[in-house]
């Protein structure tokens, strides 16, 4: 009989207690034995008063005052006891077999070092049809991500020992730190496996204005990284290029012509709008978190 692995689930949160309650409930209902996994909630707003939460014995809340989810994840890593580290976000709802199915991959092959799976978009009450449809077409293309050696931290499992080899997340980034860390892991030949049955649900942004805020946050993360890597000119020029590659990726993923047309019609104006965000950041503006 194969010994079951111990797991630490790290969930950063920032002023998101209402949605976190659903995430916690989904994690408490996992089909994996509860005595074999711990859940570490990292509060990234130390001035926030903690609400009443229904916490089981394997859940604890800690705090990190330095802004940013990657800083919060690093703090969670510093106290994690599991052999495997699982990451998800406070607005995510993992499937009931999320843990069990991921751990099976590690148990079946000792060469598996990172595991990820689909992040499926759902439409929460009050969400506009357009923002939901756009994100259901474009967001979290994990199959494509894995082909490029990366994954989002909304759904990622990593052997804890890998962090000793690759290092932790870049805490200076407020966005894009999951891609940056996974690129380092891939460069270090750390295997990344996509599994269709390791599923997390993620709500679509409520409105187009929320999509723009998200785009500003992502642009800010990319701006800081490009500046550090001295690739700022290439980063800026990308925003002027029509999204042909974006459309090609969607077509390759099996999206219909009408879906691609809708996605490009929304994405291209938002992309051009981000030029103003780049100008703001260039004038010493602070990236959004």
Automatic annotation (TrEMBL):
<keyword id="KW-0328">Glycosyltransferase</keyword>
<dbReference type="InterPro" id="IPR029044">
    <property type="entry name" value="Nucleotide-diphossugar_trans"/>
</dbReference>
<keyword id="KW-0808">Transferase</keyword>
<dbReference type="InterPro" id="IPR001173">
    <property type="entry name" value="Glyco_trans_2-like"/>
</dbReference>
<dbReference type="GO" id="GO:0016757">
    <property type="term" value="F:glycosyltransferase activity"/>
</dbReference>
<dbReference type="Pfam" id="PF00535">
    <property type="entry name" value="Glycos_transf_2"/>
</dbReference>
<comment type="similarity">
    <text>Belongs to the glycosyltransferase 2 family.</text>
</comment>
<feature type="domain" description="Glycosyltransferase 2-like">
    <location>
        <begin position="8"/>
        <end position="139"/>
    </location>
</feature>
<protein>
    <submittedName>
        <fullName>Glycosyltransferase involved in cell wall biosynthesis</fullName>
    </submittedName>
</protein>
